[in-house]
Amino acid sequence: MSELRILAPVAGTVVALTGVPDPVFAGEMVGPGAAVEPDRVQSLTAVAPCDGVVGALHPHAFALEVDGGRSVLVHLGIDTVSLAGLGFELHVDRGAEVHAGQRMITWSPVDVAASGMPTVCPVIALQAEPAVVEQAAPVGAHVAAGDHLLTWH
Questions:
Q1: Which of 39, 72, 116, 136 is the most exposed place for a label (fewest CB within 10 A)?
Q2: Which distant-in-sequence residues (6+ apart) come within 8 Å of 132 by Cβ?
């Protein structure tokens, strides 16, 4: 299988998954990865972290199906499913082929934070073995959307 570069979907500060306030992500129950605490701006557009096909799409999260049977999940905030899509604007459809850096969802970290929810964005290599996912951007670093975040070997 070829190496997959996974990009940061949003601008912000890199956080270890263990620091995500959700046991499913923090415990790597769905797979290894990293998270980005987004810049606190009123409007932020999440971009595709790699090339792929939109396999799952919700206002607050999406998963891309990638060559080799791999999938990458991006979750915008924690418990944001409870917002029922309010404040999230989708730019793609399920089943669409997308390219790294393409606009996916626009949302407001400011509004999510004002609702009392964490804004941190986990980026997960779904069902991957932790040994094959390497963090490219160190915890604490500031990344721009599209910067190299993870490498899936």
A1: 116
A2: 125, 152, 153
List the domains of the chain with CATH numbers: 4-147 (2.70.70.10)
3-state secondary structure the chain: CCCEEEECCCCEEEECHHHCCCHHHHCCCCCCEEEEEECCCCCEEEECCCCEEEEEEECCEEEEEEHHHEEEEEECCCCHHHHCCCCCEECCCCCCEECCCCEEEEECHHHHHHCCCCCCEEEEECCCCHHHEEECCCCCCEECCCCEEEEEC
* Other CB atoms within 10 A of residue 50 CB: 21
Confidence of residue 17 (pLDDT cuts 50, 70, 90): very high
From the candidates 75, 99, 142, 153, which is the catalytic residue?
A: 75
State yes or no: is 75 an active-site residue.
yes
Tokens of 8: 């940061």
pLDDT digits (tens, 9 = 90+) for 82-120: 999 999 999 999 999 999 999 999 999 999 999 999 999
